[in-house]
Amino acid sequence: MSQNPHQEYQKQREDLFQQEAKHKASKIHKILMITSSILVIILLSAGTYAYIYYTQPGPYDNFAKCLTQKGAVMYGAIQWCKYTQGQANMFGKSFHYINYHDESELAGLKTRPTWVINGKWYEKVQSFDTLAAATGCSIN
Q1: For residues 127 and 90, is the Cβ–Cβ distance under 8 A?
Q2: What is the pLDDT of residue 74?
Q3: Which helix (H) or strand (E) segment is 115 a member of?
Q4: Mean pLDDT by 10-residue block, N- to C-terminus, for the chain (140 residues)?
Q5: How far is residue 73's CA from residue 70's CA, in Å, rounded to a whole number?
Q6: Pick from 4, 11, 42, 66: CA 20 to 30 A from residue 94's CA?
Q7: What does the pLDDT read at residue 2?
């Protein structure tokens, strides 16, 4: 026996609704796949950049190593002093070669940063030229 017109109409609506739902799900799936692919590409790019950045030597590695070998010590407050941070930033990633100590380790320190080189104090941010002249280190 055939269905009445109202039941047929309802069945057609349900079929259409299911088709639309499948179509929307397919679109959402495609959008998620594209978004996921873009995210993976971004993460891989960032990872590659980070790897290259951290495995390449810093531009002032040799200069910073020489300063430390010559006994130069930088004292400051890297956590909060913008001048100490500025001096550190001048060295960029080469700063980790600098013999750096917290200000509390130098009695009488009043100015940050303070460099101690051969017993002489150099207060405030120092240029590379000044540090090179005081130690005999080559900047390049």
Answers
A1: no
A2: 98
A3: strand 114-117
A4: 75 82 85 93 92 88 98 98 98 96 96 98 98 96
A5: 9
A6: 42
A7: 60
How many CA atoms does the CB half-sphere of 51 hold within 13 Å?
6
Q: Which pLDDT does position 52 carry in this prediction? A: 85
Neighbouring residues of 81: CB distance < 8 A, sequence distance ≥ 6 = 112, 113
Query: What pLDDT, on the 0 to 100 scale, is given for residue 3?
Result: 66
Residues paired with 117 in a beta bridge:
120
Give the span between the Cα atoms of 5 and 76, in whole angstroms: 87
pLDDT value for 73: 98
Nearest-10 Cα torsion for 106, 109, 111, 114: -40
Domains of the chain: which residue ranges? 1-56, 61-135
How many residues are listed for the chain in this entry?
A: 140
Q: Pairing mode, if any, of strands 73-76 and 114-117?
A: antiparallel
Residue 60 CA to residue 72 CA, distance in Å, equals 15
Whole-angstrom Cα distance, residue 26 to residue 47?
A: 31
CATH topology for 61-135 is Glutaredoxin (3.40.30)
* 100 and 78 Cβ atoms separated by less than 8 Å: yes
